[in-house]
Design goal:
With 388 residues, the chain is an alpha/beta fold. 26% of the residues lie in helices and 21% in strands. Helix 6 packs parallel to helix 7. The protein starts with a helix and ends in a 5-residue tail after the last strand. Bound molecules: fe (ii) ion (FE2). Fe (ii) ion is lined by residues 117, 147-149, 260, 321.
């Protein structure tokens, strides 16, 4: 029954999209509400990245030379988050898309990663289809993990279909991941070297929405534990198993993680002073950025950071969710990073805590990570204010 419903919905979207596109063109932009992608800076950057192989929960990628052989050149990842394409401020959504696509055109990354809260319009499936179309026109490989605003339910057909909608595009690397794990989009992307080793593994997770009864029950938590969700035991166990199996096959491999809701360890980087501002705690080495709001993590630590420390593979964790925190800090040997947010329709520093902020000082932008053949990484923020 559900499959019939999905088929009908898919046919509906595929039929309605061209019709609405026709009326959009006729309306001279007045119908921009669900057509943010029309604002995009569509530069086809023609990636020289190739998919080498695919498994149920992993994709193996490589950067290639013109003759098709694997290259060991640096692999560049552009990541961003919280575009909050909501539809009620079309001119702001257009600005978010223009800035994003301009950054992609200039950085020319090998992979683009979105860490959630990207598409949350009333016509979410329609807009996801257009967003995917836009990324395909650019021609770069891309990954999308769910934020709390896309994840309307823990594990539902609605959520699965939305992900399937993205996954059907040739340059989208997303995978559902194993069915028995929490949520959708728990998978890995491995970047291959020419000598059959890996320069890096990227691990993606669905970090959920709010803590639900099922999550409390599985962790033995009382009913009064509420708030933003946490990574579940089955996701952490999958990560451990996957890292171990990769190291068995390819040797010691460095890795990075990407998901939406920050780990509780992000709270260790800054501490709140008496005047309510956040100042460095002294426990972490801050590479760049600052904290302006409380860390929007779960009130419960399910142990992902402990797993990272135990395995010694992951050297950086990237999240989104908090729009005015943008630090990159080395804490206990692991970089805790906020992807630079890109959503002009949602809150940022302007007017935050009643303090006005000039456009040039807003924290919108992208994060650029360069991965070297030996697994070393360099993480940089690239603010949109360079275009003002
Ligand atoms: Fe969020």
């Amino acid at each position: 029954m559900l499959q019939i419903f999905d088929t009908v919905r898919r046919i509906g979207i595929e039929t309605v999209l061209p019709v609405r596109r026709f009326f959009y063109k006729k309306s001279n932009g007045k119908l921009s509400k669900t057509f943010f992608s029309e604002a995009a800076f569509h530069t086809d950057i023609r990636s020289d990245v190739r998919i080498i192989k695919k498994q149920e929960d992993a994709v193996f990628l490589a950067k290639c030379n013109p003759d098709g052989s694997i290259s060991d050149r640096d692999f560049v990842i552009l990541s961003t988050t919280d575009l909050h394409l909501e539809g009620h401020k079309p001119e702001k959504d257009a600005q978010s898309i223009q800035m994003l696509t301009r950054q992609i055109a200039e950085v020319k990354p090998d992979l683009v990663i979105f860490t959630g809260d990207v598409i949350q319009t009333a016509h979410q499936h329609m807009d996801a289809a257009q967003f995917a179309d836009m990324m395909e026109k650019i021609g770069v490989y891309w990954v999308y993990v769910y934020g709390n605003h896309e994840a309307r339910e823990v594990k539902s057909n609605y959520k699965k279909f939305l992900y399937d909608n993205l996954m059907s595009r040739p340059h989208c690397l997303c995978l559902f991941g194993k069915e028995d794990l929490f949520g959708y989009g728990n998978f890995a992307v491995h970047i291959m070297n020419s000598n059959d080793s890996l320069s890096q593994s990227l691990y993606f997770f669905d970090s959920g929405r709010d803590i639900e009864e099922s999550g409390r029950r599985d962790e033995g938590l009382s009913d009064d534990v509420t708030g933003y969700d946490f990574l579940k035991k089955n996701q952490i166990q999958w990560y451990k198993n996957h890292v171990r199996s990769i190291e068995k096959a390819y040797g010691k491999t460095k890795s990075m993680q990407y998901f939406h809701i920050p780990l509780p360890e992000y709270e260790e980087v800054f501490t709140q002073a008496e005047n309510k501002t956040f100042v460095p705690s002294g426990k972490a080495e801050i590479k760049y950025g600052s904290q302006h709001e409380g860390i929007g993590c779960a009130p419960y630590n399910s142990g992902m950071f402990a797993a990272i420390k135990e395995l010694g593979s992951t050297q950086a964790v990237f999240c989104g969710h908090d729009h005015v925190n943008d630090f990159c800090a080395l804490y206990e040997g692991v970089y805790l990073v906020y992807n630079q947010p890109g959503g002009y329709a949602t809150y940022n520093l302007d007017g935050y805590n009643g303090i006005p902020c000039a456009e040039k000082d807003l924290q919108f932008g992208v994060t650029v990570t360069t991965v070297r053949k030996d697994g070393g990484i360099d993480i940089q923020q690239r603010l949109n204010n360079i275009y003002l």
